[in-house]
Specification:
By secondary structure, this protein is mainly α.
Length: 175
């Protein structure tokens, strides 16, 4: 079971009040996405700790302007880059990804009309779990392959050393 205390030890630069809203959604949702072994949980928590700046950010700090016109993300309408910038604990980015996520978890396109829904703690966790499953990250976690997990999430190895630090902390507190 994930607790505020465990997450505070893994994320020492965050506050209990910042972490608390995510604890129940994590405990309720990760088993539904088969993030249910020690290795899987450790890797998942390490990655979302990095991606969210220790649970402080569920919306990308940058404006999203850099994603404007990115057809590979489905950003084909003016303003899509800003509207569909990274959100959730694993920063879901781009009109296409928001639409696929919305259809998969809600059965409709509500995230296209209300992308800010991914900023709510339950949806932030849900979107991260969905991304994890959609990209086959449990298998990579089973192989203890932090580099490949990072590449799937980030498209490269950005922040790898930071992710490794979080992972090493999870080994102490998620047993």
């Amino acid at each position: 079971m994930i607790t505020v205390e465990i997450l505070r030890k893994i994320c020492p630069f965050s506050f209990s009040s910042t972490i608390k809203p995510f604890v129940d959604p994590l405990n309720n949702l990760i088993p539904q996405y088969h993030i249910n072994t020690t290795l899987r949980i450790r890797h998942f928590i390490a990655q979302i700790s990095h991606e969210s700046g220790e649970f402080k950010y569920v919306k990308e700090l940058a404006s999203g302007q850099a994603y404007e016109g990115r057809k590979d993300l489905g950003n084909t309408h003016p303003g899509d880059g800003v509207m569909f910038k990274g959100r959730g604990l694993i920063q879901i980015t781009g009109r296409n990804n928001y639409l696929i996520l919305s259809k998969d978890i809600f059965g409709d396109q509500r995230l296209i009309d209300h992308p800010e829904l991914l900023e709510q703690p339950e949806n932030a966790v849900l979107s991260a779990c969905w991304f994890w499953e959609k990209n086959g990250l449990n298998k990579l976690a089973d192989n203890d392959d932090i580099k490949s997990i990072t590449k799937k999430i980030n498209g490269g190895y950005n922040g790898l050393s930071d992710r490794v630090v979080y992972y090493e902390r999870t080994k102490k507190y998620i047993i």
